[in-house]
Amino acid sequence: MNTLQSFSLVAIPPEDEALRAPVRAFLQSALHGVPPAVRARSWMGFDADFSRALGRQGWIGLTLPTAYGGAGRSSFARFVLLEELLAAGAPVSAHWIADRQTAPLILRYGTEAQRAFFVPRIARGELFTSIGMSEPDTGSDLASVRSRAVPTATGWRLNGRKIWTTNAHRAHYMCTLVRTSGMPEDRHKGLSQLLVDMALPGVTVRPIRDLSGDGHFCEVLFEDVELPADALVGEEGAGWQQVTAELAFERSGPERIYSSLVLAEAWLAELRQSAAPAASVQVIAGRIAARMAVLRAMSLAVAEQLGRGLDPAFEASLVKDLGTEFEQAIPGWIEEAFDAPGHPVPSVGLLQTLAYVTQLAPSFSLRGGTRQIMRGIIARGLGVR
Predict the structure, then answer these.
(1) Per the CB 3.0–4.6 Å rule, which of 157, 176, 211, 272 could disulfide with 132?
(2) What is the pTM of this model?
(3) How is 318-374 classified by DSSP, letter by letter?
(4) Mean pLDDT by 10-residue block, N- to C-terminus, for the chain (385 residues)?
(5) What's the sign of the alpha-carbon dihedral 182, 185, 190, 194?
(6) CA distance 338 to 276
(7) Hey, which residues are catalytic here?
(8) Hey, is 20 helix, strand or coil?
(9) Residues 222, 158: contact at Cβ < 8 Å?
(10) Quick check: 73 and 26 in contact, CB under 8 A?
């Protein structure tokens, strides 16, 4: 089969589509009166109370097994939930990483004790995690990580430094990729994943301010951090294979399309209240809708493959690369529309939303792997690398 034919057209089953109405009703109540400039922070919006309320609804860990506190639903149900959360601009940042990556990772590679401790707490919105992958001087080249854990009589002693770690200052645990044997020159060999209690002595977290003034990204230092033996996830030395599988969850969802959607919705809402917009403005609105439709269909195809237990690394990378390019283009298109003849004067709220998304947009193609990394994976999938 041609590689690109793996993007088959799929539809959301009726039983999963039925989830949309109660989620939408919950969000209309929970986010009533929250302005677009705040809702545009959805990805970065940290609200532990909101996450716990979502957990009480059974909407964290939607695809996780019921035996561990999940809902046992399909990947399509999770797709519907994510669409509604992001379209409304819900503050998902507190539980986001634990739900999407850490819980599935522990279920797949962890011990029974790790599953029993972590997964139910994650599903209730009580335990938040961060992901420690990037390091200074290595960036997205994860095979070059230098942070190192050495065996001790009781477990592991960890030293090293991580950077660009989202919400490390608020997370209860970090799932971090470190070297447990060999040297950085060994590349994919000798890497392991460890669960680090962020309250342990020797852990220092320094938030880093971004262009918008927020401090979500962090630098994390580990200085002689003593970890128990059961901090290890999976097999010692198998970290590279585990991280590769984990990243498919991070790169595949609709979150790679909807980062600028609150801005687009706010703009369209003001446009609908005006007289017939100029043809050039209609072209921009149509461009957003058309590209969104194609990307959504591609993301649904990836969700279907994940639901079948496949590893759609190529497909997920293609959706992420095209999706982040789309998200980054939206603020520029809308700013261009402001100059069209007869365009209504944008409200202060819309301008604030545009300013925030414009400042944050450069990060869209960094998080979850840079554009260069994605295109390398795509090239391999096409057989040209």
Answers:
(1) 176
(2) 0.89
(3) HHHHHHHHHHHHHHHHHHHHHTSTTPPPPPHHHHHHHHHHHHHGGGGGTTTS-HHHH
(4) 72 96 97 94 92 96 94 92 95 94 94 97 97 82 87 97 94 96 80 97 94 86 97 93 76 79 96 88 96 93 83 85 94 96 93 95 83 86 85
(5) positive
(6) 14
(7) 250
(8) helix
(9) yes
(10) no
